[in-house]
Amino acid sequence: MDVTVFSTKRYDRRFLDAANEAAGNPCRMRYLEARLSAESATLASGAQAICAFVNDTVDAAALGQLAAGGTRVVALRCAGFNNVDLKAAAAHDIAIGRVPAYSPEAVAEHTVAMILSLNRKIHRAYNRVREGNFALDGLLGFDLGRRTVGLVGTGKIGIAVARILKGFGCRVLACDPAPPPALDGLAELVSLDRLLAASDIISLHCPLTPQTRHLVNEASLARMKPGVMIINTGRGALLDATAAIAGLKSGAIGYLGLDVYEEEEELFFEDQSNQAIQDDVFARLLTFPNVLITGHQAFFTVEALEAIAAATIENLVAFAETGRPAYPVALEPAG
Questions:
Q1: Does residue 25 sit in the same domain as residue 76?
Q2: Is 264 one of the catalytic residues?
Q3: Does 35 qualify as catalytic in the annotation?
Q4: Which of 10, 229, 237, 312 could disulfide-pair with 262, CB 3.0 to 4.6 Å?
Q5: Of these residues, 77, 92, 98, 235, which one is catalytic?
Q6: In what order do the strands lie in the sheet with 148-152?
Q7: What is the rounded distance in angstroms from the CA atom of residue 87 to the CA atom of residue 72?
Q8: Domain membership flag for residue 74
């Protein structure tokens, strides 16, 4: 099977090639650095399959171009699929496969690392010491084990975060419309309103849906404890960045950790160090000393990339053999 891989980095090639070789080299991979869009989709002409990443644009226009070029399956090397127009995919009879789970521990551990770094001001202390400043003023933290942490979403990642935080001695609250049995003993299930009001730290691990879009907004911030810590390693649009800036300025938000950002497509995964950031909202966030931002790297571990590559090859092989990816996304009926 011929596969065109978009948004390719060196590490993508390394892990996809290894997974393909382990499976007996069933795929002929063509790697492109370009992101998938309606304009770049023509680069996949002749390929039965394409592989796309989290910030690729798999909209109706791109899918139309892919279908015209002979593409029959899109293998997403990520769990989320909010960047895919499922109705358009159904209309063009293009199957969509994804990676359902790759390493919940990777994202969970990064989440807790952000909590610890913000609390103990590690990012600020690191820069001070490099400049010869060993003063402790402004670096005061708190005992994590004495705090209440609220987890919005209790999938595999949320459960992994709860497990780690229980080890710290935290009181863990959780909100989920369909909590798994594994939550028992790890967290206390509460309503969203109760979680927002009672938590010292709130961490977002729910999928992005119309109901969860801008879950953190002006109204929800007003229901939280003053000085709350908010962590988002889920989807960027779970948090209204403009409302977050207002909350940081007023003191409603005491700490903010982001590994994702709603408008990250033009920023993340690229070296932007030699140019001015054009996103004024993002640039404003960078000015706050109590904000820690990483560039969508929570997933970025050896174990996670191995699992992502393996599941991607599984999807492609399964489609070649059965016409259906191993881990399909249910397509919405056209019309």
A1: yes
A2: yes
A3: no
A4: 237
A5: 235
A6: 188-189, 171-175, 148-152, 201-204, 228-232, 253-258, 291-293
A7: 15
A8: yes
Q: Which of 33-42, 252-261, 269-278, 284-293 has the lowest mean pLDDT?
A: 269-278
Enumerate the β-bridge partners of residue 28. Answer: 2
Count of domains for the chain: 2
Q: In a 10 Å sphere around its CB, with 0-12 CB exposed, 13-18 middle and 19+ buried, how is residue 169 labelled? A: exposed
Per-residue pLDDT tens digits for 255-280: 999 999 999 988 998 888 999 999 99
| 333 is a domain residue | no
Residue 249 above 90 pLDDT?
Answer: yes
**Domain of 76, in residue numbers:** 2-102+301-322
Mean pLDDT of the chain: 95
Q: Are residues 77 and 113 in the same domain?
A: no
Tell me the mean pLDDT in the region 302-312.
96
The DSSP code sequence of 260-318 is --TTGGGTTTS--TTS----HHHHHHTT-TTEEE--S-TT-SHHHHHHHHHHHHHHHHH
89: in domain: yes
Calculate mean pLDDT across residues 69-88: 93
pTM for this model (two decimals): 0.91
Query: How far is residue 199's CA from residue 219's CA, in Å, rounded to a whole number?
Result: 16
**Residue 334 pLDDT more than 60?**
no
Question: Is 123 a catalytic site residue?
Answer: no
Q: Which of 98, 110, 205, 264 is catalytic?
A: 264
Catalytic residue among 77, 98, 205, 296: 296
- CATH at residue 71: 3.40.50.720
* Region 51-75 average pLDDT: 96
**Residue 218 confidence (pLDDT):** 97
In angstroms, rounded to a whole number, what is the distance separating the alpha carbons of residues 86 and 331? 5
Residues 182 and 219 occupy one common structural domain: yes
